[in-house]
């Protein structure tokens, strides 16, 4: 009978981690980032032969007038929950309305100073339905704020320990001192037209940090690492959005000449 030594070794490591950690303490990681392809993916892939639905998307044209206020919303995977925020709504994704990201005010303040932006208006629960299927529900809420454009962003955070390849959903605390924990976050955003969903531009940024897993002696310690990584990724996303917006303004000016 053959032995799967890789699986056997991982099983031994898990048993040792549980024994060292006291078996009881654990940290449940938040849900994943929302699937951003539902907001912009169809316009990013163009084949030589396209079906009718793709042609409809490609044929969309920008309808926004500049300068304009921009509605802002954070989306996450269904059922998102963290120590500092909970997702609102059910369906294909949920919305996070709490401002739990460090430096968020600084990032949004920098965007607000960009040319052709009259204001940034966060979407709140009073404007949102209880169920989400596509970007339409968000665009309807943005329309209620008379915002010609909508900025949608998400944070996709994963935890990995040493040679464990798959992202962990539960991190056991009190791990062996020689184990290195890796935490990464990719922040993604898309700017779209409120009226027809035309995509003006996208931006993305990633931050990855590591530390000894033995430092995670409490849920609060793990969550502090998550927030630190997410804040850095969001700050970098804001920098990239400034570049994206410069292209949006330039292209819009050329299109209206």
So how many helices? 6
- How many separate domains make up the residues? 1
Cα separation of the termini = 75 Å
User: Spans of 5+ residues with little confidence (pLDDT < 50)?
Assistant: 18-23
What general form does the structure show?
A: elongated
Task: Say how many strands there are.
Answer: 10
Strand and helix order: HEHHEEEHEEHEEEEH
Can you summarize the main beta sheet? 6 strands, mixed
The residue-averaged pLDDT reads: 82
Helix and strand composition category: alpha/beta
Helix content: 25-40%
- Radius of gyration, in Å, reads 21 Å
Query: In percent, how much strand structure appears in the residues?
Result: 25-35%
Structure, described:
With 257 residues, this protein is α/β, with parallel strands linked by helices. It has one domain (24-255). 32% of the residues lie in helices and 27% in strands. The strands form 3 sheets. Strands 2, 4, 5, 7, 9 and 10 form a 6-stranded mixed β-sheet that branches. Strands 1-8 form a two-stranded antiparallel sheet. A two-stranded parallel ribbon has the order 3-6. A hairpin with a 5-residue loop joins β9 and β10 (199-212). α4 (104-112) runs parallel beside α6 (219-255). The termini are far apart.
Can you lay out the helices and strands and say which pair or pack?
Layout: H1 5-21, E1 26-28, H2 37-40, H3 52-58, E2 68-76, E3 90-91, E4 94-96, H4 104-112, E5 117-122, E6 131-132, H5 136-144, E7 149-161, E8 170-172, E9 180-193, E10 199-212, H6 219-255
